[in-house]
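> run fold P-II family nitrogen regulator
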Amino acid sequence: MHVVKKIEIIANSFELAKILDSLDKSGVHSHAVIRNVAGKGLRGTTEDLDMTMLDNVYILAFCMPEQLKPVVENIKPLLNKFGGTCYVSDVMEIRSVRCVASM
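> ok
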C-alpha cells in the first residue's frame, strides 16, 4: 500500500472535455466520470435542471503526490472561470500483482 492523492471534481458537464484534457496534460491519464450528478451546494439544488447539457458531472482521479501541483495549476483556472469544485485528499492505494483468475 502507498499514499496517493484522490482528486474529486464536481463541475458542469459542458466543461468535462476541458477538465479531462487538463488532467491528462498534468500527467493524470486515468479517471472515472459519473454523469447526471445532483445535489445541493452554495448555489442551491442542481437536480431540477431541464437540459442535459447543464447537468453536473463527478470526476474521480488519482495521482501520485508529486503530480498534484500541476493538476491544481491546470484545474483551478477552469473552475474559477466556469464554476465547480475540486477536493483533494490522501488515500491509500492497494495494488494487486496477483490475477484473481489464477487463485
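The helical segments are 16-25, 68-82.
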